[in-house]
Amino acid sequence: MKIGNVLVKIAVVATIMIGVVGCSKKPQETLTSPDKQISVKIVVTDQHTLAYSVERAGQPVILESALGLQLTEADFTHDVKIDAQSPVTPVSDSYQIQVGKKSNITYTANEQTFSISNAQQQKLTLIFRVSNDGVAFRYSVTDSTLATKQFSKEITAFNIAPSAKAWLQPMSVAQTGWSNTNPSYEEHYQIEVPVGTDATLGQGWVFPALFNLGENAQTNQWIVISEAAIDGNWHGSHLQSGSAAGQYTLASPQSAEVFISATGEKGGLLANGSEVLLSPWRIIALGSLAQVMESTLGTDLATPAIPMEKDFIKPGHSSWSWAILKDDFTTFDVQKKFIDYAADMQWDYTLIDADWDKKIGYEKLKELVDYAAQKNVGILVWYNSSGDWNTSPYSPKSQLITPKQREAEFSRLHDIGVKGVKIDFFGGDGQSFMAYYIDILKDAAAHKLLVNFHGATLPRGWQRTFPNLMTMESIKGFEFTTFTQADQDAVAQHVATALFARNIFDPMDFTPMVFGDIPNIKRVTENSFELAESVLMISGIQHFAEIPEGMATVPEYVKDFLRELPREWDDVKFIDGYPGKFAVIARKAGDTWYIAGINAEKESKTLTLDLHFINDKKGYVIASGETERSFMQQQINSKTPQTLTLRPNAGFVMVLK
Fold first, then answer.
1. What is the rounded CA–CA span in Å between residue 379 and residue 360?
2. What is the pLDDT of residue 7?
3. pLDDT at residue 26, as a whole number
């Protein structure tokens, strides 16, 4: 799978040819952001290795850290030199995106390209970009003397001050968990841990990784490390555990994280290419917490959208029975009831989950699709992605493994009138799995199907490249809080962390919001907290967990709020918050601002919100009533600062227009 390799090759060659100049024996080059606040130094060390460092406002953010790539036929981790570097070139990009925190985005940066050679005179290109909200860099190998361009290892590091604190999710061990379905980015975050803390499962940390430099920086510096623009030639990376000194290096997938074909053949684990081997962008978003939370770097660096018809791409809200009712209710009559529920709530979709092919069947599915169409509701259906890489029992299973199978299945769904697919139980971050994801997205687009990946890797900006990608799970979502009380007890802090980490760039199918009871579980969040999730969480399709019986318990004004809730957002403003403790975020759609907040701490929190940025607008706030399950509504305006006291695990929403 080679997305845009020809265009990438042209771009890389063009950049290298721009007026390169000679370098001293041990050069130190500095590249700055357009606003001059961020600077990056690229050096050849005394040990003849590549390194870089990052400062913001004159303060260190990334200390001197290693750069380098090793292939099976070429080693760029030592004995290297910079042969030439291009002049600094301004980069500007404007794009639209339907699934994200903003709809119209402009990205500007300064770029510089470095031509690197090793002792064997083999060539590597290093590309750096610096924008006002962060730093990005990637490697490119186009050396025609290399017979193969097979990845071996990457020594890229992120050296962070040892006084910093981190919010990190452990990478799980491959082939563990239920039916051997790990890794799926479904672990609890470790909260505010010292840098260098060992990952609890021994496999390092997933992206995005969040750090705060703390009191040692004169300004409050936050860092988010991730990657973007991953194609079918490269594997997904994560961070190794790190050292007490604060150094984190990139880690490759575990050996078991490979796609297995219908004939049992194992796919590739690590990156490889023929003419061009181009790494993803390694991203460091940095600045104040507000700057990081409002950053779009994760899609700014993603590959632009591939050509596709877009008339079928409609973000929305969905009813879903499985979250509360589980397996036994994936039946014709129950799904018809959930279509009626979606229609009453003016939602766009109903998701029919696992084993629908056995319990409902294709013919009756067609009846449900036709019934739903009469009520302006689209149908989404679940699939099991897996072949032999796990033992998950649910079906339809192993129907998407080959191009021929996908063509047959997607054509059938399109003819029936299905609007999209939820595909579950992938097997990790190996190169062959990345290619599998991309093959599915392209084939689904050709049949006008929306896509939701579950039991999956991180999107890494794919929602820009493939506009039919609505959302991905990649999080310990709501369903886990219905399995164990321990997960329910931890959910408020978990949500208040995921908003700052997992959901910072990419859509997240947490499947939020429940107002009623969860069987065999004591809910710990107030209904106002649950309602706030509908605004705080970004997902192209928001699959709401609540069932009709629970929705019937809330006031009509809460239902009306959910009926009118926008499907897409035009702008974002971070108002206040702290990872794992609380969050207040404003989102704009048209001329209306929606503001939501949650308190995940054990004590009540009083917030005074200055809404002057909204200008003169009127509206209302919905917050907790006298009890945990009750609501209250009050009229407000943006001219008057709003003071709210939130009980533990409570929240609020505001609408101003």
1. 13
2. 37
3. 53
336 in helix, strand or coil? helix
* Per-residue pLDDT reduced to its tens digit, 235-256: 999 999 988 899 999 999 999 9
pLDDT exceeds cutoff 80 at 6: no
Q: How far is it, in rounded angstroms, from Cα 384 to Cα 395?
A: 6
Give the residue among 253, 389, 379 at the shortest CA–CA distance from 320: 379
pLDDT, mean of residues 266-294: 96
Question: How many helices and strands, by DSSP H and E, does the chain display?
Answer: 16, 36
Distance CA 257, CA 432 (A): 9
Contact 140, 115 (CB under 8 A): no
216 pLDDT exceeds 90?
Answer: no
User: How many of the other CB atoms lie within 10 Å of CB of 5?
Assistant: 18
> What letter does residue 317 receive in the DSSP assignment?
E
Provide the 8-state DSSP code for 500. T
- Tens digit of pLDDT for each residue in 301-322? 999 999 999 999 999 999 999 9
| Rounded Cα gap, residues 225 and 210, in angstroms | 7
Give CA–CA dist 124/140, Å, rounded. 6
**Segment 45-60 mean pLDDT:** 96
CA dist 142 → 60, 115, 118 (Å) = 33, 11, 14
Query: Which residue, among 508, 453, 444, has the nearest Cα to 478 in the 3D structure?
Result: 508
Dihedral (CA of 442, 443, 448, 450) sign: negative
d(CA 132, CA 302): 17
**CA–CA distance, 130 with 34 (Å, rounded to integer):** 8
201 in Cβ contact with 171 (< 8 Å): yes
Angle at 153 between CA 148 and CA 158, to 5 degrees: 140
Rounded CA separation 16/272 (Å): 22
378 vs 47, 314, 418, 450, 468, CA distance in Å? 61, 10, 7, 11, 15
Question: What are 73-85's pLDDT values in tens digits?
Answer: 999 999 999 999 9
The domain 5-93+104-178+197-300 is classified under which CATH number: 2.40.128.20, 3.40.30.10, 3.90.45.10, 2.70.98.10? Answer: 2.70.98.10
Size of the chain in residues: 657
pLDDT grade for 1, boundaries at 50, 70 and 90? very low
Q: Is 314 helix (H, G, I), strand (E, B) or coil?
A: coil
Distance CA 585, CA 292 (A): 13
| 466 touches 312 (CB < 8 A) | no
pTM greater than 0.85 (yes/no) = yes
CA angle 170, 296, 188 (to 5 degrees): 20
Task: Pull the structure tokens for residue 624.
Answer: 């907790």
DSSP string, 82-118: EEEEPPPEEEEEEEE-SSSS-SEEEEEEEEEEEEEE-
Which sign does the torsion angle of CA 335, 337, 342, 343 carry?
A: positive
Token digits for 652? 């609020």
Report the phi/psi class of residue 376: left, alpha or beta, with left for phi > 0 and alpha for psi in -120 to 50: left
Can you list the positions of beta strands (E) in 99-257?
104-117, 123-131, 134-141, 149-154, 157-159, 165-168, 190-194, 209-212, 222-228, 238-239, 247-251
Residue 378 identity (one-letter amino acid): G
Cis peptide before 87 (omega within 30 of 0): no
What are the residue boundaries of the structural domains of the chain, listed by start?
5-93+104-178+197-300
Mean pLDDT computed over 542-558: 98
The rounded distance, in Å, linking the Cα atoms of 207 and 460 is 9
Identify the DSSP state of 73: S
Q: Which amino acid is at 54?
A: V
pLDDT above 50 (res 145): yes
